[in-house]
Amino acid sequence: MLGAALLLGVSMVCLAGGAAAGETVMEEKVTGETAAGGAASQENESLAKTLFARKTPYTGDAPAVSALVSELADQGVLPEAPSGGIELLTDEEPYGLLLHYGEAPEDEETFTLEMSLASEVLLALVENLDHVEWTYESVRDGETVGIIYYWDTEAAAQILPEGHEIKEYGESEEKLAELLEICREQRDNASAENTDEEQPQRLTKESTEESG
Length: 212
Prior knowledge:
single chain; 5 helices; about 35% helix; alpha/beta
């Protein structure tokens, strides 16, 4: 859920080597649409200064990316540090970053929102990063499944003011502070929606396969 216009597309697939026998891997691509940007608060300006110091040009720079992920967790941008570590997906372009978590969070919807917004910041601050993924195990309909969420530059741009791209927001502390303000607005919108009787529309597409 990212504000009033969030749509989730869900596809349940069997990924080679991605699950133990008898398990299914569910991959979810999360997309959002348009958010109005606003002037950054003093708090976000201070946070932007701290985070911008961790900016790195390369997804393949493991120490730099690890330090950025740790900083995001320490500052509360990531809802929690990835308990299973991180994986750099740099064998070929587009480059990605995979954050491994353990068991499913208690509130998966809120966790998805927070991870999506944290992915915005990661995409802004790692110059050649194209997508962020995060994974954990959950029980769905009595079956243990591996859940993989996917957030890329295209999805990231859809919650920005029209005509803007996510990489712009990694160009300066000021632009990063603007991005943090957009993320704050998304949280506020999501909180407001949770108090409404009518829930946001969710579009779901599912297909299943036996895992070997």
